[in-house]
Every structure is written in C-alpha cells, then in structure tokens.
Amino acid sequence: MNEENKASKNKWSRIFKKKWFFPAVYLTIAALLLSVVVWYQNMDNQIPDAQEDQENYVPTPNEEEAEPVLEHQEVIQMPLADQEQAEIVTKFYDYNADQEDQENALVLYNNRYYQSTGVDIASASGETFDVVAALTGTIEEVKEDPLLGNVVVVSHENDVKTYYASLEKVSVKAGAEVKQGDQLGTAGKNLFGQDSGTHVYFELRKEDKHVNPEDFFNQPVSSLESALEEAVDSTESDEATESSEEEAVENEASEENADDEDKTEEEDAPADEEEDDASNEESNDATDSSESA
Predict the structure, then answer these.
(1) Checking CA distances to 246, which of 1, 208, 254, 289 falls within 20 to 30 Å?
(2) Contact assessment for residue 173 and residue 125, using Cβ atoms and an 8 Å cutoff
(3) pTM of the predicted model, to two decimals?
C-alpha cells in the first residue's frame, strides 16, 4: 500500500512539474469565468425585453375573444311531452304533395271538404295527453271556439307563432311567459276535426304565413327563413307564369275577336251591295213610271 501511494504521489508531482500544467489550469478557469459573465449579461439583456414586450403587447384581431357566430337556437318540437307516442292523423295540405298526402290533408265538415293549414296530432293509445309549447314564447291569446274547442296562440321571436287547438283543458293565461316544453293544456275533441278523435290541432306560422309543421320538426327556427324565401320565390314565379298565361289568353281572345269582326264585315258587304242594287232598281222603276205617266 505504501509503495502504491508513493507511486501515485510521484505521478502527480511529475504532472505538477510540467511547464504546461498551471497555464492550462489558468486558461480553463478563465474560460469558465468568462462563460459565466457572458451568460449573466445575456440574462440581464433578455429580462427587460420580455417585460417591455408584456407592457407594449397589443392583441391582434385573431387573438381577441371570438364572438359566437350563431346564437343558440331552439329546435322546433312536437307539441306533446311523449313524442314517441305521437301520430299525425291529418296532414298539412301541400299543393306540391302527392295525391295520397293531399287526401289525408282534407277535413270533412258539414258535407264539405276543407284544406288543412296545420296538422292533427294524436296519441298512439288514443287517450288524452299533455300539450306542451313547441318553442319558448309568450301566450298571445287564449279563447274558446265553438268549432275548434279551446285555442292557445303563442308568439315567438322572429315573427313566428304557434297555434294549438282542440284543447280539453287550458293551463295558461294570456300574457304569460312559457318555455319550450311547458304544459299548455290537454288534448281533447272538437266538432271541426271530429274524425281525428282526441288530438291537438297544431299550426306553425312565419310572418302570418302557414308552413308545414312536419317539414320543421326537429329543425332550428332559422330554417323557417329560408323556407319562406323559397315560398316567396315560387309564388312570384307562379304569379309571373299565370300573368303570362293570362296575357296569352287575352291576346288569343283579341285575335279571335278581330277575326270575327273581319268575317262580319265581309258578310255585311254583299248585303250592302244587294241593298244598293235594290234601291237602284226601285229608283229606276219610279223614274220609268213617271215618264210613262
């Protein structure tokens, strides 16, 4: 052990005696100190810059809080609590529907058929059920109609109204605020739709125009806007077509009248000539008789 210790000491003593040893140690220490100083200066320079950036920070438009593009809209629901039991027994009369649907949209009353502007909804069990608000709104009117039974009209935003008739009982009053799903009354029977049994008669109106409720159940209220625009466009096109057809009919009628006048003039012309010939003959006879006298 003593010999090993002596050997290691001799090695270190030889290293210390080298001329390059101490300069190398000094250079290493100097390099470390220089690195520490440079690093510290860089830290001092970066901290103020970060603080200035925070003080002068102005959010760009893309970083501002995003505004909601679409406000939350309710979905139009059927006017009964248990929608799985709902059955539409009378449809909305649509001029573009097939013949079967149009026949199912006719209401027979007093030996006369009427086109339905809403739908009759009954329960699969045939029993009465709770009638609820299809949308959030305000009770505009509550009345009793001799043909339709108890009627409740609810007004909503964006000029939308829902109409509930054939109610046995009414549980709301005019002016009350109701939320979607709140009970309005119970389904019953009425004289006008007596073939539908116990039901609720439901109408959906946009700007006082009737629309087919079946097309908008489980659809957002905004879908009524596009449907109304399409309806207006189709109405305008139909009116333009009707006006052009009327003009064509008027033109044909005027042409026929002109032809009839021409034929009448042609027929009258020979008659006039015959009358002129007859008058000439009469005048000649009168002249001859005077001469003979």
Answers:
(1) 208
(2) no
(3) 0.58
- Across 216-233, b (16+ Cβ under 10 Å) vs e yields bbeeebeebeebeeeeee
CA gap 289, 293 in Å, rounded: 6
- The tens digit of pLDDT for each residue in 25-35 reads 778 888 888 88
Tell me how far apart the alpha carbons of residues 223 and 214 are, in angstroms, rounded to a whole number: 13
In the structure, how many helices (H) and strands (E) does the chain have? 4, 12
Q: Are strands 209-211 and 177-178 parallel, antiparallel or unpaired?
A: unpaired
Residue 167: Cβ within 10 Å count: 24
Contact assessment for residue 134 and residue 80, using Cβ atoms and an 8 Å cutoff: no
Q: Are 198 and 52 in contact (CB under 8 A)?
A: no
Alpha carbon 177 to its chain centroid, in Å, reads 24
Who contacts 203 (Cβ-Cβ below 8 Å, separation ≥6)?
117, 118, 161, 162, 163, 165, 210, 213
Q: Which two tokens stand for residue 55?
A: 């003080």
Tell me the CB-side half-sphere exposure of residue 140, using CA atoms within 13 A.
13
For residues 150 and 185, the answer to whether their CB atoms sit within 8 Å is yes
